[in-house]
Amino acid sequence: MSLKHRTPVDWLPRIVVAPSFIISLLFIYGLMAWNGYLSMSASRILPNYEFVGLQQYAALLESDRFRVAMTNMGIFGVLFIGGAMVIGVLLAILLDQKVRAEGVLRTVYLYPMAVSMIVTGTAWKWMLNPGLGLEHLMRQWGFESFTFDWLVRGETAIYCIVIAGVWQSAGFVMALFLAGLRGIDESIIKAAQVDGASLPRIYWSIILPSLRPVFFSTLMVVAHLAIKSFDLVMALTAGGPGYATDLPATFMYATAFTRGQIGVGAASATVMLATVAAIVVPYLYSELRTKR
Amino acid sequence: MGALSIQGIHKTFNQTTHILKGIDLEIDAGEFLILVGPSGCGKSTLLNMIAGLDHPTSGNILIGDRDVTHLPSKDRDIAMVFQSYALYPNMSVAQNIAFGLEIRKVPKAEREAAVQRVAAMLQIGHLLERKPGQLSGGQRQRVAMGRALARDPKLFLFDEPLSNLDAKLRVEMRAEIKQLHQRTKTTTVYVTHDQVEAMTLGDRIAVMKDGLVQQFGTPAEIYTRPANRFVAEFIGSPAMNMVDVQCNAQGVCAHGIDLHLADTQRAAAAKHSANDLVYGLRPEAISFSDQGMPGQLSMIEPTGPETYATVDTAVGKLTARVPGVLHARVGETVHLQWSADQAHLFDRTSGVRVG
Amino acid sequence: MNRLNLHRLLLWGILLLFALWFLAPLYVMVVTSLKDADQVRSGNLLSLPTAPTLSSWSKAWSTACTGVECNGLQPFFWNSVLMVVPAVLVSTLLGSINGYVLSKWKFRGSETLFAFMLFGVFMPMQVVLLPMSQVLGWLGIASSVWGLMAVHIVAGIPSTTLFFRNYYVGLPDELIKAAQLDGASFWQIFWRIVMPLSTPILVVTLIWQFTNIWNDFLYGVVFSGADSKPITVGLNNLANTSSSVKEYNVDMAAALIAALPTLFVYVVAGKYFVRGLTAGAVKG
């Protein structure tokens, strides 16, 4: 298309979106690259742009705390994602059975998403408190020897974070799946019923398989939530006891901002980015491909 | 100088898809031009260019004596009715009709006068305060036309406006559009894929295929002297019967049977270089009689006023169109007759008309 | 018939059990916040207050200690309000304009640019924290409400653009063409035709942005200064101060204060909230 035939109107849309596009892209990719450079610099308390190659990454790998954080990421990730998905799908299927109080129940299951993770963390911290929380409650009810000190013990604190996290996010999975279930063509289900299939069979063989796209996109979002979990950990355990419940997100914050090791912090951020990208980019790519 | 002049329009997308391959058309003021053709022929693309919603890769468009090729839509003094009507859902009917005038800063009194004038013409006065969502298909169609009429433009464009209506409504609205045109005498370009609409509404028809105009003429010309095989088969329903024939000394023949030719046709066929031709016959030209080509009746389709009959003959399946009811049964042997000057001859490879 | 009843009973049983589990923390928070210190000690998680009092609420609001200062959550609450309202409005407006252009005025490369921008929705924020602090420092707005606001606006543009673009794609193109023929300009079409038709997605986006920005903690704790910390940071400080005695009732009251705005929005306009969730996540 020859340039002289372009009218002013053709340029206006570009000019209008240019500022926010440029800023967003700089924000995302520019800063990402900068962070990458910081991770390969000799920065400690203040940025120092001397290039040191992969020294910070080596420090990262040697850090016991980081290894704990990554292991926790794995445990937490699997349990959180698994728990949220299973409970969410279960609730969605149950609610799909033409339950009368569906609206109310949906509101109840989903309200945790409306609340900050700090609030969630604060509440659960109180509830799982050994002295005054669940343990105390059980003892008052007569179970004298009941102990629930998971929150304060290094090996089990991470499970408390899982419980609080699943509590917050299961409703979200349920909402997405319910929307997906509602989008299924009724006539397919009726055809299966006429063919004599039982309800569980229909769910297992027909409905759930056709929800694969919803399943994957939900999985994407929940996984992404898991990797970003910072607020919840800070409120519930602040990474403790010690650094037993550290996750890469809290590790990054601590090293970069409280312990004055910017280079290592940047390196850990890059590792987080790589993990997210490894999951999200193929997914986004295949989604946009099929849209064409 | 005509009211609309399209000169050498080409359009290519992405350097590979050649949608319009050179369109030249000219119509006079007050004429109703139809652009008709199968999907993908380029008629909607051409309409968009006349409207200014798209730009040609090369060529010119003139409205009156103004070259509007590079003018934006709003400066071309045209109005358009879209297939989906495109009424603004958040505005009332009156606001929809007046919107174009409002943008052009026409004073309020004049705007209201225009709305009333248009509403009277289209009998939608009682709908002025409603929103498009509350109207039926036919009503929306009228409002869309009203919006176009209110601007009193030099050129009306219609993009398949009747496609979304059911059959009965389509016939009614077709008549209304024709009446409106007779009253306002505005130059109109109308795109459709329906050949009945093309024949009934148009002063002149441009039959398009694969980005080229196959024939440009009055409905009568297009129907009685189609320029090529495509036009012959596209216009007219049931489609023209086509028989592959060979030229010989006396005229033409197919499968060993001599087919009648008029003198003019014989001369034209003799002058023509190729010997492989196609013999075309419109169904209404064929009648049943006691003598003529024998064949077996294979299908009868009564439509009420007429009957379409398919007959298996030695030269192939022929469809005849006879008035009234046919008193014969499937499987019977019948004889078909037609007059030679009703036949059309086309070149078999190029499809071009021979005689 | 008996079997059907048993199934229904089981169904309801499970649903109700889960409902109780989801509601429990809310119940505990409310109940605890209405107790005083003695009642907290003598009672248990689920016990109702023997003498309900709002003292912990007023303490949480105005006198609780959040680190060095003891002014309660009040200053943090207003910090959040001051920061959230402009951030939500600006990011939503920019998103709508971007979505309008991306769906109705596509140009070469616009789809690719959009795809790149989409990644911003998924990117872990950790990766921009350090460089962003530098940038804000250079611009002179680090540790201020402006800096925090700017970060939220820029971080919100990918999501808001996604919402509006997906919605506007559903508006018929012929509507825009008709308006062009009527003589309307780019902006006239936006304000007179597209915006009035945007109410559903506007509500969804406003609610989604409000919830996310109000509830955010990470940007709040990194980019705010002493005078501009949002309520999430205030709450976390309050609940984690290592001062003498832990006052759980005050903690719970504080948590409720922090949660009330978004909870209120959720209860009143919940279905739009859900639409935001499903629209953003399910569409790629």
Give a short summary of the structure.
The complex is a heterotrimer of chains A (292), B (355) and C (284). Chain B has 355 residues and is α+β, with helices and mostly antiparallel strands. Chain B has helices spanning 43-51, 93-103, 108-122, 137-150, 167-184, 195-201, 219-224, 229-234, 263-271, and strands spanning 4-13, 17-27, 32-36, 58-63, 66-67, 78-81, 155-159, 187-192, 204-209, 212-217, 241-247, 252-254, 257-259, 276-281, 287-289, 293-302, 306-313, 316-323, 333-337, 344-347.
Summary tags:
heterotrimer, A: 292 residues, MetI-like fold, 73% helix, flat, disordered N terminus, B: 355 residues, alpha+beta, 2 domains, six-stranded mixed beta sheet, five-stranded antiparallel beta sheet, 9 helices, 20 strands, 27% helix, globular
Largest sheet of chain B, described in full?
A: 6 strands, mixed
CATH superfamily name of the largest domain in chain C? MetI-like
Distance between the amino and carboxyl termini of chain C: 44 Å
Query: What is the name of the CATH architecture of the largest domain in chain B?
Result: 3-Layer(aba) Sandwich
Percentage of residues in helical conformation of chain C:
over 70%
Pattern of helices and strands of chain C: HHHHHHHHHHHHH
- The low-confidence runs of chain C, each spanning 5 or more residues with pLDDT under 50, are none
How many domains is the backbone of chain B divided into? 2
What is the CATH homologous superfamily assignment of the largest domain in chain B?
P-loop containing nucleotide triphosphate hydrolases
Apparent shape of chain B: globular
Q: Which fold does the CATH topology of the largest domain in chain C refer to?
A: MetI-like fold
Question: What is the name of the CATH architecture of the largest domain in chain C?
Answer: Orthogonal Bundle
Instruction: Work out the number of β strands of chain C.
Output: 0
Low-pLDDT parts of chain B are none
Major sheet characteristics of chain C: none
Chain pair forming the biggest interface: A-C, 100 and 89 residues
Strand content of chain B: 25-35%
> Which structural class should the secondary elements of chain C be placed in?
mainly alpha
Shape summary of chain C: globular
Question: How would you describe this structure to a colleague?
Answer:
The complex is a heterotrimer of chains A (292), B (355) and C (284). Chain A is mainly α. Chain A has a single domain, classed as MetI-like fold (Orthogonal Bundle), CATH 1.10.3720.10. Chain A is built from 13 helices and no strands. Chain A has helices at residues 8-38, 55-62, 64-95, 102-114, 117-127, 134-140, 157-182, 186-194, 199-210, 212-228, 231-236, 248-258, 262-291. Residues 1-5 of chain A have low confidence and may be disordered. With 355 residues, chain B is an alpha+beta fold. Chain B has two domains: 4-229, Rossmann fold, CATH 3.40.50.300; 238-347, Nucleic acid-binding proteins (OB fold (Dihydrolipoamide Acetyltransferase, E2P)). Helices cover 27% and strands 33% of the residues of chain B. Chain B is built from nine helices and 20 strands. Chain B has a six-stranded mixed β-sheet, sandwiched between helices. The longest helix of chain B is centred in the middle third of the chain and has 18 residues, at 167-184. The two termini of chain C are 44 Å apart. Helices cover 76% and strands 0% of the residues of chain C. Chain C is mostly helical and 284 residues long. Chain C folds into two domains: 2-53, no CATH class; 74-282, Orthogonal Bundle (MetI-like fold). The model of chain C has no long low-confidence stretch (mean pLDDT 86). Chains A and C meet through helix 1, helix 3, helix 4, helix 5 and helix 6 of A and helix 1, helix 4, helix 5, helix 6 and helix 7 of C.
